[in-house]
Amino acid sequence: MARRQGKPPRSAFDRRSTAEEVTAGIDLTGKTALVTGCNSGLGLETMRVLAMRGAHVIGAARTQDKAAEACASVKGKTTPVACELSDFDNVVACTDDVKALDTPIDMLICNAGIMALPRLEQRYGLELQFVTNHLGHFILVNRLLPTVLDTPAGRIVMLSSSAHAQAPKGGIQFDNLSGEDGYSAWSAYGQSKLSNALFALDLSERLADTPVTANSLHPGVIQTNLGRNMEGVFSMALGVLLLPMMRTIPQGAATQCYVATSPALEGVSGYYFSNCNPETPSKYARDTALARKLTQVSEELVGKYLG
Ligand SMILES: NC(=O)c1ccc[n+]([C@@H]2O[C@H](COP(=O)([O-])OP(=O)(O)OC[C@H]3O[C@@H](n4cnc5c(N)ncnc54)[C@H](OP(=O)(O)O)[C@@H]3O)[C@@H](O)[C@H]2O)c1
């Protein structure tokens, strides 16, 4: 793991801490955050709390209307932008819109995601969770990197998941990114969430000589709209099984708000967090060679959108 500073300090926060609690006393006036998936669940709460602490939040959602409605629902300074992550031209247009705002981005929070599509769906001939959760964000981050480097200490925050450990053997199936040689809903979700963690890890290495940090995290298990693609009985059974672990949306948004804002994490890069504390992810998520290979393959897949 890229460890620019020693191990990050353990915080006093835990699974019950809320996004408001972990940001209490932090003044984000003059700072700008971009949050993808700002219209639902953890993204909406993250936008609300960062704006409440004084940040200008650029709220990205799949359509301009969804982004505008979400931004209008929170107090503080927000700017809506459209960003459909599974449409790469749309991601490029989003980054052009953001650059036109001429605002350096202090916190780039890649929060949007889809989970466990029951049947194989593809875009650009590739499995849709890999496209949406990883490649869309890969284009977004790479295109916006100059605006993050334009701040004194930019932070890139990738929403991964403990489900990254359900990625297939070998971590990323580079020879089956289409999903056509075998598809499992959870393993594909796991692969996409492992990709989020590996992307943060590789960014932390690539940006080691800059003040920009990149970390990934598991937010906990939270009842949001994320289960929308799961089929009825399975969804209900899983809900019952996970009930004892469930936390509220304000608690679920805590770790990403902590990683994006805590003064204690200045310069901390290349880590995976859970419950507002560093945690050791799977061996694949710590594999810097795998992270480099994912970046290289992603560049080959979407190079023409990177600009
Ligand atoms: N909830 C959990 O228990 C849990 C656990 C581990 C990790 N996570 C991660 O946490 C993140 C936030 O999830 P959540 O629980 O808040 O789920 P959510 O309520 O379903 O929110 C997901 C957000 O992503 C957006 N999104 C989906 N597909 C998109 C696309 N193609 N382009 C742009 N935006 C898209 C959704 O927009 P629409 O509303 O328009 O579809 C929504 O705003 C995800 O990355 C997820 O993997 C969640």
Class derived from helix and strand content:
alpha/beta
Helix content: 40-55%
| Gyration radius, in Å | 18 Å
CATH architecture: 3-Layer(aba) Sandwich
Enter the CATH topology name: Rossmann fold
Alpha-carbon distance between the termini? 28 Å
* Poorly predicted tracts of residues: none
Strand content: 5-15%
Protein described:
This protein has ten helices and twelve strands. By secondary structure, the protein is an alpha/beta fold. The chain has a single domain, classed as NAD(P)-binding Rossmann-like Domain (Rossmann fold), CATH 3.40.50.720. The strands form three sheets. Strands 3-2-1-4-7-8-11-12 form an eight-stranded mixed β-sheet, sandwiched between helices. Strands 5-6 form a two-stranded antiparallel ribbon. 49% of the residues are buried. The chain has helices at 19-22, 41-52, 64-72, 88-100, 128-149, 185-206, 232-242, 249-252, 254-261, 288-306, and strands at 32-36, 56-61, 78-82, 107-110, 122-123, 126-127, 155-159, 213-218, 221-222, 246-247, 272-274, 277-278. Helix 6 links the parallel strand 7 and strand 8. NADP nicotinamide-adenine-dinucleotide phosphate binds at residues 36-37, 39-43, 61-62, 66, 83-86, 111-115, 132, 159, 161, 218-219, 221-222, 224-226.
